[in-house]
Amino acid sequence: MPQLAYVNGRIQPLADASLHVEDRGTQFGDAIYEVCAVMNGQILDWQPHLVRLRRNLAELGITLDMENGPLTLQARRLIARNGHKQCIIYMQISRGTAKRDHAFPGAAPANLVMTVRRFDFAQRIKQLATGIGVITQPDNRWGRVDIKTTGLLPNVLAKQAAKQAGAFEAWMVSGDTVREGSSTNAWIVKDGRIITHPVGTAILPGIARSSLIHLARAAQMLVEERPFTLAEALAADEAFLTSTTAPILPVVRIDGQAVGTGMPGPVVSRLADLVWAEVAQQTGWRA
Ligand SMILES: Cc1ncc(COP(=O)(O)O)c(C=O)c1O
Q1: d(CA 30, CA 10)
Q2: Which of 3, 197, 226, 240 is deepest in the core (most CB within 10 A)?
Q3: Cβ(82) – ligand 1 distance below 6 Å
Q4: Hey, which residues does 39 pair with through a beta bridge?
Q5: What are the tens digits of pLDDT across the range 159-196?
Q6: Domains along the sequence of the chain with CATH
Q7: Is 185 in the pocket of ligand 1 (CB under 6 A)?
């Protein structure tokens, strides 16, 4: 079965799907996006993703001429037509197609595209046994990284640096504060306290992040939303990251130095049980 994509109301083969060369997403990064996990054919945390998508559109003044109901139907239709039970759906909305000019075009309708890719979530459960390594990179992004825009060049360069270093992720550090990863949120555990950077304008408010805070607090675990330094991270008992495509992974090395024992620890293991139980509860999916 060919891969299918959605472009402005039409589902078509991915190989033929395209936007105009003057799409503002291409020319200016003038676009927002969402990535959602689909397990057992069900979209995880769909409502919070929709809320964030709408907030991002509002922050940038992009008008999408489609309500949440039809958007949900189109997303589900594309997932069903692609036929993958475990996949991710990528949705991108740009300010539209217009003659290149920095200021907003008058009446150009937004461009909405969606793609679906098969994704192996079971690998994330296997990775819980070993954990992953991260490197650090200077956070040289703009001042509104809370808006999920396609302007991701610093994130791309940071992730490539991680890949070249044989690491899974790059943690973006500003001054001595660890903010987040290039595509994940960053966490440490010290004396049983679970610590992550607060939301605001300096990090992306991750959906996996907010779900984990909710689950941890419901289980009477202590969560502190406050900035933490790289020195604190290196001296932490445990560390981990979260995202849609890596719902929870232990971080066992930072810049080649072991975190805690250098092996995944008990707090992350307990959190992972909570996270994957929530996935099973919402979608029915079990590895
Ligand atoms: C910079 C950044 N931080 C954090 C995240 C994690 O967000 P979510 O949990 O919504 O996937 C992402 C996801 O793409 C990201 O790009």
Answers
A1: 22
A2: 240
A3: no
A4: 42
A5: 999 999 999 999 999 999 999 999 999 999 999 999 99
A6: 4-119 (3.30.470.10), 125-283 (3.20.10.10)
A7: yes
Spatial separation of the C-alpha atoms in residues 213 and 239, rounded to whole Å: 15
Q: Tokens 């475990």: give the residue.
A: 86
* 274 ligand 1 Cβ < 6 A: no
What is the identity of the amino acid at 204? Answer: L
- Pick the residue whose CA is nearest to atom 16 on ligand 1: 183
Which of 144, 185, 212, 242 to mutate for ligand 1's pocket (most ligand atoms within 8 Å of CB)? 185
pTM listed for this prediction: 0.98
Q: Does any ligand 1 atom lie closer than 6 A to the CB of residue 56?
A: no
* Catalytically annotated residues: 148
